[in-house]
Description:
single chain; alpha+beta; 2 domains; four-stranded antiparallel β-sheet; three-stranded antiparallel β-sheet; binds zinc ion
Amino acid sequence: MSTRPFPKLRPGIWDALVAAVVIVLAVVCAGAFWVRGTLAEGELTAVVSMDGQERERFALSDGEMERTYTNHGYTLHLLVQSGELRVAEADCPTQDCVHTGTIGQAGQSIVCLPARIVVQLVRTGGSSDVDVVIG
Ligand SMILES: [Zn+2]
């Protein structure tokens, strides 16, 4: 008839155990990710799209490389350095692409909305969930 109060879980060993399990899982996941990323075969490739259409793709080499893209009246200067990529300069009003900074891992991307240019990093060859188009 009267509502029983919730049985109070004593904070203690169970909390510690749960926390430990969560930490272990997190470490295992991070480790798996790291190993997979390191061992993944294939080249890191930048895919440049304009207006949603792929225009160019090039492998990120260890050397230095510059690329310039113009779309919708805006020009982006891409700079590749040590296998990483960034928009060094752009004349778009938002400068979001410049502020994105350096990307160097598959799955990362730089988007310039005013120019409608997307630069995405993918890993070709090694991963099965990446479409590889050999032209
Ligand atoms: Zn931009």
